[in-house]
Amino acid sequence: MSGIIPTSMKPSSAHRPDRRLVAHLPLLPILATAAIFRIALWGALPRQGLISDEGEYLSAAWWLAHGRGFDWHQGYLWTRAPLYPIFLAAHLRLFGDQATAIFATQTVLSLISVVLIAALARRIAPPELKSAPLIAAVLASIYLPFVIYPQMFLSETLYICLVLGGMLALLHSQAQPAHALPDRSAHSLVGSIAAGILFGLATLTRSQTLLALPVIAGWAVMTRRRDLRRALLFLATATIVIAPWTAYNSRIYGGFIPVDTSGAFNLLIGAWSAHDGERRDAPTRDFVLAMFPDRRTAPPAETCLPHPGPQPNQAARQSAMVREGLCLIADRPQAFVQKSLIELVDLFRINYTGAERLTDGFSTGRLPVWYVLMTFLLDDTLYVLALPLGIIGWALARRSVSVSSAPVLLMGVWLIFNVLLAPLLFAINRFRMPLLPFMFILAAVTINTLIRHRDRFFAPLRTRYGIACATLAAALTLIAASPHACLEPRPPGSDSQWASYLGPYPSSLAITRIALAARPFALEDARFLAALQSGDLVTAEAILQRGTPGRDTARLGAALIAAHQGRYREALARLPPPNALIDAQDVKGSVVRGDLLRSIGDEAGARAAFTPRHVDAANPVEWAWDWLHPAPTHVIDLGGNLDLGYIRGCYLGEGDAAERRTYRWCTDGALLRFPGAGRAYSQRLTFIVDGRGWPADLRPDSPVRVLIGGNQVGTFPANPDGVRAFEVTLPPMTEGADVVVELHGPVFVPDAARYLSQQGEAAVGQVHRLMVRLDRVEIGKN
Prior knowledge:
782 residues; 28 helices; transmembrane helix; LipidA_mod_glycosyltrf_83; transmembrane; pentosyltransferase activity; membrane
């Protein structure tokens, strides 16, 4: 009797803690920390505008959200997989143009990915490595790209979440025995269907996944040879998800396009880069642009096949790109193989200034100290450590007798597929992203083994397979960290030819030191600008004389101070002469010179300084607004080559030769400044507006509002018929005060032709939100 527990004393199953729930409890603090980390960086990233494909995604999504379907890509270089534009468009439709909702959803997806990584680690790690899932979750929680990508309009966050979910569903479908009980077999089939749906959606997010589907099905057959049903069900489900889009875009784009045409464009870039021996996309862009009937772009001078000329639709352009790419490869196959091997190495190298890292301009001190350190520690250092640890973790998991081989093989299939595919096109930092969740899982296996089961660590590595894995780990470490860069023979002071981790410039460590050392200069620049804008010229002069101003402030600061004091000719004398400027395309120096010449009445000289191509392409409207103190004026001729310093929030000037007019499109929140134009009596503010650029189907439902000091003083329509003048009465204000006019109104995103025509490093890839097209704005008496 003593060994029998009465039924009344047995714990009820209804009150017994769920073991699976208890097992997940340690993950909660990790998720909480990950969420806090991501939210803390909202709005804090050192952005300078949109990067990479963000502008394209946002433009296409805006059109989709406003009922224009996928027509934006009709005029672009390629078409895109639809799911991420739909994802963005849904947010724009529901929440407007604010990015907060998009960032919030992507942050949630990022946290879900952390959970999925932990769940996958439980499937892959040997049962005795109970901490491996938590270690993998920690690595995914703090890895900087996983933290900052939710604040970017790029598909990686959504794509990785779908892939991880698909992988987990696949492993669930394979977990049951081939002749399982009916209820377990049903669960297995559900797993195959779920995996097909998720990988189908992943394919509609990034089209190269289409090539992975048969590879994954092959894995399913290989691991379950007597059961083809699940593999076929997986493929059929994925096909059902993808097929409606294939039918739709094949109809709207004029021919068979399974998912998109970006693969054809990337194939042509890779083929041309190999053929010419230089990575550049200009020949491919020119080749494609010359196929648009309404473009006048000349095709590249040398093509493998005769250029096909104008093509009627995207499907025809896709075929032409594929034919040209294959011809270039066939012409120099060895060069393509060599290029692919180089790209394979580059895939694993650290590229400190990759666009997605937001680190460009590091030598100016632009990057905050915390961001520099996190980039070094939580991006580069974590990556360099994860590579060898992941490869060793693969060997440990693969040789473990306590874990099924199917999960490890699935991970290997995915890793090998991505590693082999990327070099065939070209390699950038983003292409590593789908690999890293799995590298973190495998690295967690290594770390947990070293911590808890050190006695089991070396045995698998002594086998031939383990030695091969250790050799691969060493090779990847050499590629990623490149410690041999320290031994490279090179002239004193010259840069290394190898991007490394701890070696000489351009190593991650060397650039980190440069960025940290340059930070005080940027902070002094900010203090100088604040003093200049507030009129505290004594402080500005002290910073210039005794501080550590940046390069541009040091050479232009004295002239800017003199200009603020109205000593324009003296300011001109303090400027470096044009032939002594820091380079032949010194935008800031040219703008300051133009402002000073304009201030002394030399309009011809001012136009000569404002209108060189390098200044015009940069469109330095924001910089001129912040730094210049232009002379008083009552007239602003927008786009007339003398408006810099008087306007903000306006795009590159446009001309109408027939009407002899110049214009600028301005966006919501645009500012117009009339220095010294304030009067103690009411004045008339006249806007010359050209409404012909507004699309007929997007006519604004409200006018442009005119505000002075935050108070609305009038309105005018953004899209009148033709060019018309509208008047607004300004209230009395302090005599001689600056009149700053603020404009607010509805906007639209233009077509792909305007997006492709953008010039200048700062302008390329930015989404234009057009509100009103202005010719002139002037102040006069009532």
